[in-house]
């Protein structure tokens, strides 16, 4: 009798696990939606400067970058997702997983760094969306823009309202935005083909220049393909939906995300670089303008002058969602850790309300002030993002028993090496 009673839940659990295992192996619409959402997080406004930064050294270093960036993107994000999924607690986000594996002190430090690496990027998007819409209204629509303090709060509340409505609406809106972004990127890449020249091909750098170009461009590639701020929320969603099969499912989704990013982004980069000479790329860099703005000025093309701001708008909004998820998680982690240390029980609803108010007010204030220092803050956040994305999961594989099963893979050495190269290049450029 007791065997029957105790066996019943086991049979039900086994059936549920079998169902989840089958679902994890098959591909569904929700998985595609996550691929699109992670793509949207990665393709921020940075992609508009990527052809200039990556193409300055000519065509041949770009070929090596294209070979490296796919494995770099997939393996680093896979490591971070596996790190989040290594927790005993099925609901633990990245800040709680760090505390569980490395102790309270390390947990607080990483949570603090994680927040201050992502939060400035969220602020940059608040400024960027205001500037993009204001410029479009004045230059393309030939109308006077409303006062900056009104325009910025309307745009910020629009983006925030999608996040407040929940994960499902955020994924739907991202999907709605990113499909046109993919289409426009592919369209512009194809549109530029008739303008391709051999100027970039003819520039063959010396071995030293080749290596230096590659070294200094790796951080640009890391951040142009970076979707780490959304990885913690993404991994938790996979665990909720697929249980023990979450690792296999997240691996599959991240692999497709990396492939789509590589295909569309690098085709766009190659097409831009092939249609401009190295001297023109240097001029675009000195003017500090996005590649589409430079191309529009060169060609007087209505297609590019119209689609340029649209790409910027869609890229900023879709990337804002993923970065907001990461920044919100970091801030919540800090608040909960400090309250728990003081012996207080956090009131989840009050904490959430404070976080929402904090983001709206700070985003609005910075968008109205419109500072130019934010680029520097983003570059300072660079080493932190590279450390969390590339090095922390590899360190955990060495030190954490729950991740020991991933030891001995050559991919671990590759990820750690690329992380160290990225960090060294960022620090070199800073100092």
UniProtKB/TrEMBL annotation:
The keyword ATP-binding does not apply. InterPro entries: Amino_acid_transport_2, Hydroxy_aa_transpt. Residues 14-25 have a biased composition (Polar residues). Keywords: Amino-acid transport, Cell inner membrane, Cell membrane, Membrane, Symport, Transmembrane, Transmembrane helix, Transport. The chain crosses the membrane at residues 33-52, 58-76, 109-129, 149-165, 177-194, 214-237, 258-276, 303-325, 351-374, 380-397, 409-430. One of its GO terms (molecular function) is amino acid transmembrane transporter activity. It is a multi-pass membrane protein. The keyword Transmembrane helix applies. Its main location: membrane. Residues 1-25 are annotated as: Disordered. GO terms for cellular component: plasma membrane. Pfam families: Trp_Tyr_perm. It catalyses: L-serine(in) + H(+)(in) = L-serine(out) + H(+)(out). It is found in: Cell inner membrane. NCBIfam families: stp. This is HAAAP family serine/threonine permease. It comes from Aeromonas lusitana. The lineage of its organism: Bacteria, Pseudomonadati, Pseudomonadota, Gammaproteobacteria, Aeromonadales.
